[in-house]
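User: Before I run my own analysis I want an independent prediction to cross-check against. Here's the chain; please return only the structure tokens and, at the end, one sentence I can use as a sanity check.
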Amino acid sequence: MRNSTVSPGFEVSKTPYHPLEKNCSDLYWLAFLITADQDKSVRAFTSAFEGSSVSQQLASSRTRERLVEASLGAIEFDLRKSALQTLWEQDLPEMDRLPTRFWLAAPAPAELRRAMLNIAVFPRCALVLTVFEHMHVHRASRLLHVDAELVRIGQRLGAIGLTRNLAANRGWIPALAPLNPKRPGTKLGIQVSR
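Assistant: Structure tokens:
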């Protein structure tokens, strides 16, 4: 292992990032995006690996799925409450006040995480599972214990929330946004689900 000296007394390691560490980090962030709580995500992360070594678990194809299940179980009450709220408020926001692409260009990972954590629990989980984890809507509906149509609604609300949160973090103010004449006041015209 070779170290390079930056200034007297300070050394920076040139050790490559180990794939196992990166995988653990990615899995932890997945748990954190689902739970939005540090303690719950750590508990979900550790419970997903119970019973065998972490390296064996990381090699397993079911690791992410077990982590998702453990993370959703850690927030079960809040998730059900948010799903009911989504069901009661099925009217999707109108699309005429969404930010333009200018506000959304290439968000940094920290920006994306901050925007995701400001989305309600159920829409955030629906978005994470179906868009970021590439999970089929029907599989996500089984994990979330709701029907596929509610997952699609949550997914759309999550996508709208993410769009608005990213833009708002960059200074976009919805009340000052002009109405978009290309998007008449229709209820959601985007198709995100697969």
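Sanity check: The beta strands are 3-7, 10-13.
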